[in-house]
Design goal:
Blueprint (H helix, E strand, L loop, with lengths): L1 H21 L38 H40 L5
């Protein structure tokens, strides 16, 4: 019974987005058409820049990406070194304990 409930919930989860897309959006009441503005404001649209960029206005992306990757690698190798050193400590402790215990036959 539990399987059927989980299956029904799974299918419902898959069906909800599909049903939401098929429903029509509510219609706004019809009003008189507004005249289009002659020239939209510069903030409301994309304006491409054709002039060369000032080097002071750019972000040094390659350097920042290299620093980020370098930081991640340093953290990764630091973590691996930490795990290796802790594992070798545990192995030495196991050897010490196994030498102290009498041998079983």
């Amino acid at each position: 019974m539990k399987r059927y409930v989980i299956l029904a919930l799974f299918l419902l989860t898959l069906a909800v987005p599909a049903l939401a897309q098929t429903q029509a959006a509510p219609q706004a009441p019809q009003t008189a058409p507004q005249p289009a503005p002659s020239k939209p404001a510069a903030q409301d649209e994309f304006v491409p820049v054709n002039a060369p960029m000032n080097p002071q206005d750019t972000i040094p992306a390659p350097r920042l990406v290299a620093i980020a990757y370098g930081f991640i690698w340093v953290v990764l190798f630091g973590y691996l070194w930490s795990v290796r050193s802790r594992l070798s400590t545990v192995e030495r402790e196991i050897e010490t304990v196994s030498r102290r215990l009498p041998q079983r036959k």
